[in-house]
Amino acid sequence: MTKTKNLRTRRSLVGLAAAAALLLGACGSDDKTDTANSGSPDTTASSGEDAAGGDKVTLTYFTFSAAPDHLADLDTIITAFESENPSIHIEVQTAAYADYFTSLQTQVAGDAAPDTFELNYENFVTYARGGALLDLSPYVTDGSIDPARYFPLALDGFTESGTQYGLPATFSDVVLIYNKTLFDAAGLDYPTADWTWADEQAAADALTDPAAGVFGNYQPVSFHEFYKALAQTGGSFFGPDGKASFNDAKGVEAATWLTHKPGTTMPTLADIGGTPDYDTALFKSGKLAMWHNGIWQFTGLNETGIDYDIVVDPGNTTKASAVFMNAAVASKGTSHPVEAAKWIAFLTGSPTTVETRLASSWELPAVNDEAAFATYLTSGAPANRQAVFDSLDNVALPPVLERQQEMQDIVANALESVLTGGVDVQTALDNAAAEVNALLD
């Protein structure tokens, strides 16, 4: 990566941090593994004629966040859109987060990209710089897209070199979810926003009961949790020179924090055995006391009736919460750019979308609508929904590169080598830093 690209990356991170602060202000507060949403491949299609008897335009929309829990919610949005735009039909295609970007990359490379699709912040740069996305600027100019509907800096987060390539659809963050019943049974006070790693560790030790199959904690040993833990202990993924710096003492501390948990207060990788949603099932079964996961889990948890609440993620020397943003984009090669722009504007900013997302806890819309967010705070469990917004006080955004997936895989493989290969933490991070630096050249 050139110096210019490194500077672009740092500017984007600063911009998204400011966007998070803006989101926070609007909410009246000072509230893929693990933004990953699972789902099975699914396609819904239909055809027909519009009210005037002409053929409908069919747009494909590829998403990872809708399946499996929010397909009905997406259908609500689509129904409203098609009612307002009877000449346009939306055909939904879904894939699990773990498979989504491999599938998308294959489709784009084969000139078979969906008309419209979902991108997370981490992967946006790759597709924008690769020339795969439709320039939305003309549709801002002609009024099809109203930029004032979105938080300005969130909107800016999905630009590249001043060109608008995506519309911010959602934001979400990771919190500490805890089982109140297990805490009550152990006679322990609930977690608070002041908790540190040490507090969390003490509670996890006390709550872990191997004989009963109860684990005190579950924090995925992943790229996303690593960069967050690194920020929580005062470290930085990249140094001032743009090179990897996550293999310094702070990085070792963060990696050690993650990798010491399996086999002590959480299941081992062998226990998990590649089982999808192992942690979700464990928490829902009442066998997990604390869980580092995102606000997208609320819907599923509420359906179980489990007694739970949330708190801002504990930090070490400082607070840092992982915040994720997704955008809706259109393919540069779509045969229907006007209709595509109209659809993604509706999908990201319409009142129907905002109401549907808030009612279902399907992440949160990145719109400038203070009143809507006020209703979210009192819309049911968890009781402490304010923690969702309090987490925005100290944002840890993902480091991004054009070769994003390769970087994430390098870090994930390094952490796994500590757990399964007997590699010491320092050596694993040194090797990973060298590999990441090679991606920058």
Characterize the structure shown:
The chain folds into two domains: 243 residues, D-Maltodextrin-Binding Protein, domain 2; 193 residues, D-Maltodextrin-Binding Protein, domain 2 (3-Layer(aba) Sandwich), CATH 3.40.190.10. Helix 14 packs across helix 15. It contains 19 helices and twelve strands. The protein has 441 residues and is α+β, with helices and mostly antiparallel strands. Helix content is 44%, strand content 14%.
In short:
The chain is α+β, with helices and mostly antiparallel strands.
- Overall mean pLDDT stands at 88
Largest sheet: 10 strands, mixed
Unreliable runs, pLDDT <50, ≥5 residues?
Answer: 1-53
Number of helical stretches of at least 4 residues? 19
The CATH homologous superfamily of the largest domain is named: Periplasmic binding protein-like II
Rg result: 22 Å
The CATH class assignment of the largest domain is Alpha Beta
Instruction: Tell me the span between the first and last alpha carbons.
Output: 5 Å
Count of strand segments: 12
List the helices and strands and how they pair.
Elements: H1 3-26, E1 42-44, E2 57-63, H2 71-84, E3 88-94, H3 97-109, E4 116-120, H4 121-129, H5 137-141, H6 152-156, E5 159-160, E6 163-164, E7 166-179, H7 180-186, H8 197-207, H9 223-232, H10 249-259, H11 269-272, H12 278-284, E8 290-294, H13 298-304, E9 308-311, E10 321-330, H14 337-349, H15 351-360, E11 364-365, H16 370-376, H17 386-390, E12 395-396, H18 404-420, H19 425-440
Parallel strand pairs: 2-3, 2-4, 10-12
Antiparallel strand pairs: 1-3, 4-10, 5-6, 7-8, 7-9, 7-10, 7-11
Helix pairs in contact: 2-15, 9-10, 14-15, 15-16, 18-19
